[in-house]
């Protein structure tokens, strides 16, 4: 369903780009350099290189889309080894560590399709990604987050949905309104909703209380809360009480951190999907 190429595993041309192409159906991250063995023992006329040889061409960490494992016409088949790639892209995808991860994807995807009684190509990608993240699969590469970060699951998931334009999640930095409103728009698209909740105005830092008001509006709009419900109690039941997504308890007038917003949005997404 998709052919992975060199263009997907390298940053080139537009210097404003901070990371490789983002795939909504990413299942694992690769980062091994492009490394192609020669196809002949005969060197070039200048005796400097063998034909077909590419020696450790530097790339940037990239996402692998689920679609390269799914044939376009054959039903019921997952192809984790002879995946759909160009010759150049295959020289990085072929590494053992990546293949092991892709093999895990194939097994989980097959089990999910069987449980849901759907074709492999029709399994819900978001569900598959959540299962992978829970097993600590790296769907999105970041320079600055470990899998013991409270926001790991959320950042990995939203990293496949275009929340981040670089290899830095900056989970412990304050969230500014511009990024919050951008993420809010992405969440709307992800949930296929046109939310009537008010986004946050201005250009400054977002406070916890401002964000709490937004979360409550989203929960109401999504029918997770009903008008007149005890908001705090109901939010707690769907993992949206502040203790579930704040790194630490503090005054709600203080700035919200980027990782905390990701956790809250992820918990909200899961609650709506369930």
SS element count, helices? 10
Report on the biggest sheet. 2 strands, antiparallel
How many individual β-strands? 4
Distance between the termini: 28 Å
Sheet/helix structural class: mainly alpha
Q: Overall mean pLDDT score? A: 87
Specify Rg, calculated over alpha carbons: 22 Å
Q: Quick gist of this model?
A:
This protein has 274 residues and is mainly alpha-helical. The chain has helices spanning 6-9, 87-93, 96-116, 125-134, 152-158, 177-191, 208-221, 231-237, 242-245, 258-273; strands spanning 26-30, 34-36, 54-57, 62-65. It is built from ten helices and four strands, in the order H-E-E-E-E-H-H-H-H-H-H-H-H-H.
Outline the structure in words:
The structure is a single chain. The longest helix has 21 residues, at 96-116. The model has no long low-confidence stretch (mean pLDDT 87). The chain has a two-stranded antiparallel ribbon. The two termini are 28 Å apart. With 274 residues, it is mainly alpha-helical. It contains 10 helices and 4 strands. The relative contact order is 0.12. The radius of gyration is 22 Å and the shape is elongated. Helix 5 packs across helix 10 and helix 7 (208-221) runs parallel beside helix 10.
